[in-house]
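Milestone 3.1: sequence recovery, worked example.
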């Protein structure tokens, strides 16, 4: 394939601080890649608005009106980074030969996109962007990330070390990804399961252009837990092992104290007894909670609710100019506005 059609998918959530610069950099990147003959002049940049509360969608739409490479996809509500990314991938593959996903803050080095494409031309279906180091991270984030990857490896989840969601996927790879029907998404773990020919490209991650990260500690912990429980049943098996060991220990101590009583010795140590009860009780509650988490995931999967709903795709539906040119930060681009688009136009 001499000149493949590339789409760069950019999930966005409240990214107005970085969006303008991101658009300029990515647009310039595509122009250079076209001049090199690595991609087709039909290549696009698809920004997916994941229910932003700021001016993100307005900025995206203004760019689409210029008739360039920018395309916008607006989701009906905030569904989370993974589902927003999935919406972009599934939409982009319809008109693309390959798709690259990248975050809007452009901390991932866009210059290695060229290396991604070279690997694609060599026949690779999936190209992972892998951080060569974590020098820009705090000590806490660096150590917790390392612990996370080690834990995932221990419980048998195949992850690409130091890889986030900066990757190239061929149309064929995304077609295969679409066959995975999980509602509980952890793409970093699912994509390697596709098994097509893949490789890695290393890069140094940049500092964020502006604004604040959308992944504070609370979200990072929730994301990690989602990854573990979505891809592995090892925690459930560990609960069973802990329960069995607790049973054996209790059986041994029970026999010991029964023997003491049989030989006339008085059993003392109420403190240790109460401590043991609280310990076992805590383990039981934690185990029930873990089992409940898995049951909750099964419940979500069986309901088969849609992963996302596309409210607007700029490829198909223009927006009235009076909504674009309104002064200030107009937050009235809501569902009602879009339902009336056909009448307005």
């Amino acid at each position: 394939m001499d000149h493949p059609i590339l789409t760069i998918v950019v999930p966005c959530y409240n990214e107005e601080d970085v969006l303008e610069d991101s658009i300029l950099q990515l647009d310039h990147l595509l122009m250079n890649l076209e001049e090199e003959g690595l991609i087709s002049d039909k290549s696009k940049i698809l920004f997916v608005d994941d229910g932003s509360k700021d001016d993100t969608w307005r900025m995206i739409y203004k760019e689409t009106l210029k008739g360039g490479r920018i395309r916008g996809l607006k989701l009906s509500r905030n569904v989370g980074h993974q589902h927003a990314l999935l919406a972009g991938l599934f939409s982009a593959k319809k008109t693309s030969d390959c798709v690259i996903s990248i975050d809007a803050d452009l901390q991932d080095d866009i210059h290695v996109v060229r290396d991604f494409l070279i690997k694609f031309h060599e026949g690779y279906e999936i190209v992972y962007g892998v951080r060569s180091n974590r020098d820009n991270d705090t000590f806490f984030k660096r150590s917790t990330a390392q612990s996370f990857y080690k834990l995932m490896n221990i419980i048998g989840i195949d992850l690409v070390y130091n890889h986030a969601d900066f990757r190239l996927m061929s149309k064929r790879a995304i077609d295969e990804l679409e066959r995975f029907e999980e509602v509980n998404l952890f793409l970093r773990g699912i994509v390697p399961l596709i098994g097509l020919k893949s490789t890695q490209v290393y890069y140094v991650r940049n500092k964020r252009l502006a604004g604040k990260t959308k992944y504070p500690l609370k979200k990072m912990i929730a994301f990690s837990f989602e990854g573990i429980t979505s891809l592995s049943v090892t925690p459930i098996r560990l609960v069973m092992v802990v329960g069995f060991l607790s049973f054996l220990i209790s059986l041994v101590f029970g026999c010991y104290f029964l023997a003491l009583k049989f030989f006339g010795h008085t059993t003392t140590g109420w403190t240790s007894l109460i401590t043991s009860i609280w310990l076992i009780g805590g383990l039981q509650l934690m185990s029930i909670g873990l089992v409940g988490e898995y049951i909750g995931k099964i419940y979500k999967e069986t309901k088969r609710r849609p992963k996302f709903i596309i409210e607007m795709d700029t490829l198909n539906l223009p927006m009235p100019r009076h909504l674009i040119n309104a002064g200030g930060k107009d937050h009235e681009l809501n569902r009602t506005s879009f339902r009336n688009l056909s009448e307005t136009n």
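The CA atoms of residues 12 and 217 lie 19 Å apart. The first helix runs from residue 16 to 36.
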